[in-house]
């Protein structure tokens, strides 16, 4: 985990559940910012997963690509991809 990711992890509110916003729910507070980057490609991150005490950040593309495997081992899943549709 990089220093920047560690700082975000320490400042982030505790996440205890797996959450994914859908049409019936809304994200009340966006905790991912434009400074948060995908660990796979460097694009803006919209998904954060906690695995073995470390936070992994993903863009929408890579989050969906690895979602099935990650959800089985993640202690939390934070998905803000609905923000991509809000801008339209």
Counted up, domains total: 1
H/E order of the elements? HEEEHEH
Structural class, please? alpha+beta
Q: Quick one: biggest sheet? A: 4 strands, mixed
- The number of helices is 3
Output mean pLDDT: 79
Q: If you compute it from the alpha carbons, what radius of gyration comes out, rounded to the nearest whole angstrom? A: 12 Å
Give me the side-by-side strand order of the main sheet. Answer: 1-4-2-3
Distance from N terminus to C terminus (CA atoms, Å) equals: 33 Å
Structure description:
- By secondary structure, the chain is an alpha+beta fold.
- It has one domain (3-9, 18-24, 31-86).
- It has helices spanning 3-11, 60-73, 83-86; strands at residues 18-19, 47-51, 54-58, 76-79.
- The N and C termini lie far apart (33 Å).
Give the tags.
alpha+beta, disordered N terminus, 88 residues
Give me a quick take on this structure.
With 88 residues, the chain is of the alpha+beta class.
């Amino acid at each position: 985990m990089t220093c920047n990711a560690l700082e975000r992890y320490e400042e982030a509110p505790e996440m205890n559940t797996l959450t994914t916003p859908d049409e019936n729910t809304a994200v009340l507070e966006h905790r991912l910012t434009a400074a948060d980057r995908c660990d796979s490609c460097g694009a803006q991150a919209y998904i954060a997963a906690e695995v073995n005490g470390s936070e992994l950040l993903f863009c929408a593309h890579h989050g969906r690509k690895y979602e099935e495997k990650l959800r089985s081992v993640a202690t939390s899943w934070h998905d803000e991809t609905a923000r991509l549709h809000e801008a339209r």
